[in-house]
Records
---
Amino acid sequence: MFPILSPYTKAISHLFSGREPTPECHECGAPLDTALHTLVECATWGPQRSQMEKVVGPVRSLENMVKAMLSSKRYWSEVASFCESVMTQKEARKSKQLSIDTKRMRLKFESVPLTEFD
Ligand SMILES: [Zn+2]
């Protein structure tokens, strides 16, 4: 759960190096997908965020989220559940995109005449 809570831009940027081709949010198109964006701003995760906020109250910053987590086991569990849900869906999207990219590369490769390899 650490990567999603990191407030440091450098750390977040590091997450993208080699893992994501671009830093923007693939869910909503925001120019920079940071932990703050994912946890507090991104409309895509609004339903999950609302569910969490029903239990822990409004979360407007990463600092507030960490404070909530440290204040009770129930809040910790609720925030952890939110983070897990979001990260699972993000990973599923990435995996699906990788599969699509692989299929496109295969089709592109298969369309090259064999004479090109002689
Ligand atoms: Zn977004």
---
Amino acid sequence: MRISILYSTLLAVASATGIRKRDICIVDSLDDASKDDVPAINAALKECGDTGRVLFPLGKTYNIRSPIDLSPCRACDFQIDGVLRVSSDWEYWKNQEAVFLVHNTTAAVIRSDGSTGLIDGNYYGFARMQLDQLSTPKLFSFKNESYVVLVSSLTVQNVLGSAFYVTNSTGIRIYDVNFANNAAVGVDVDQAKHVYMYNVTLRAENACVRIRPNSSNVQVEQSECHIAGNRNDASGVEFYLLSSGYEWIRNIFVRQTKFARQLNVVSVLTREGNGHRDGQGVAEVFNATFRDIQLDQVKRPARLDEAPNVQMNVSRTVFQGWSGTSLQKTQFECNNAGDMCNWEADAWNITYRS
Ligand SMILES: *[C@@H]1O[C@H](CO)[C@@H](O)[C@H](O)[C@H]1NC(C)=O
Ligand SMILES: *[C@@H]1O[C@H](CO)[C@@H](O)[C@H](O)[C@H]1NC(C)=O
Ligand SMILES: *[C@@H]1O[C@H](CO)[C@@H](O)[C@H](O)[C@H]1NC(C)=O
Ligand SMILES: *[C@@H]1O[C@H](CO)[C@@H](O)[C@H](O)[C@H]1NC(C)=O
Ligand SMILES: *[C@@H]1O[C@H](CO)[C@@H](O)[C@H](O)[C@H]1NC(C)=O
Ligand SMILES: *[C@@H]1O[C@H](CO)[C@@H](O)[C@H](O)[C@H]1NC(C)=O
Ligand SMILES: *[C@@H]1O[C@H](CO)[C@@H](O)[C@H](O)[C@H]1NC(C)=O
Ligand SMILES: *[C@@H]1O[C@H](CO)[C@@H](O)[C@H](O)[C@H]1NC(C)=O
């Protein structure tokens, strides 16, 4: 399986760089919601993060009152078998980038052994409501050229904002992850490449997967996307182009994935970027394939939302082998003259019911 392949790559990296045996740091829990377990976690990462393992045993709960810094992790195994619970302290968290800072991290595995690991975002203690996710901390933030990181066999719950935000990084894999309830955005890809999701059950309010400009090779396989709520613009896979100048999204592949309820399965939207109200913005989507897709009473298979002064160019985009039910039909033509919407549907078997 894929995961074992990654493990062997990891071991190869570990044995190439480390002469010493894998260190194991077992993190103690203070077991007190008013105390922060993160200083001990960050100390364990410093001690064992270079090719070793940081272990959170089953049956223990850790209180997360400040960000966990995974940057010391080099081929490390961050094994969460217990529960990591984020504190109810919105005044603190609202100014933080993320709970898990995965900055410049290489060949890391963040996982549990047997899917027992739970990360409870606790909505950062914020009364549950919709927020602009740009100003909300992320649960995980991958950036600064993180390279080959696997997140697997974990449950996440009570996430406000984006669960996994990936930028300026490559080779990020999210496998066997279950969202127990809705995040605002499940996986948010921004100027990143090779982001793979496999066997992920995504639940979100705004988008299961949002792909921002200059991202490529994003894949979703054998997964599920559930959206509840009443937003007209909620999306399964959203191409979100701001179009300040020239922007592109390339090589997207979604296969054997199920989409359910209040969503547009695929959305392409452009927004005018600052200073480009003169028709100079160009937004390109090139080479996207959605194959063997199952719909369960979705809103629409696809939706275009075109800003007037941005030239949208969708090409080589194929919908193949879709089945199931949708409330509304899909419009394949662009709304704006001058935009190019070149998508094809093949083996299309959707039943429309209102
Ligand atoms: C991340 O990059 C910023 C600059 O882009 C730098 O200041 C910071 O130290 C980097 N962090 C790590 C952990 O590499
Ligand atoms: C990542 O860390 C390495 C040192 O381990 C450093 O040379 C490099 O500049 C860092 N990259 C970024 C983007 O922070
Ligand atoms: C990505 O990295 C480039 C340079 O390496 C930097 O200019 C840009 O601000 C970074 N983007 C984000 C979102 O951090
Ligand atoms: C998919 O992930 C779930 C955990 O969310 C796990 O229990 C299940 O075994 C995985 N299925 C496959 C086929 O790997
Ligand atoms: C995207 O890439 C193009 C070049 O391919 C560059 O001109 C543009 O500034 C980039 N935009 C962003 C938001 O990174
Ligand atoms: C299209 O994207 C797929 C990955 O989804 C890639 O394997 C293929 O090479 C791409 N084709 C082109 C023409 O870029
Ligand atoms: C649209 O994008 C494709 C792929 O990048 C490119 O070959 C084509 O010239 C573009 N068309 C227009 C009208 O910009
Ligand atoms: C289309 O889907 C319906 C059920 O949704 C099924 O009964 C029918 O056989 C399918 N047709 C084709 C050509 O696959």
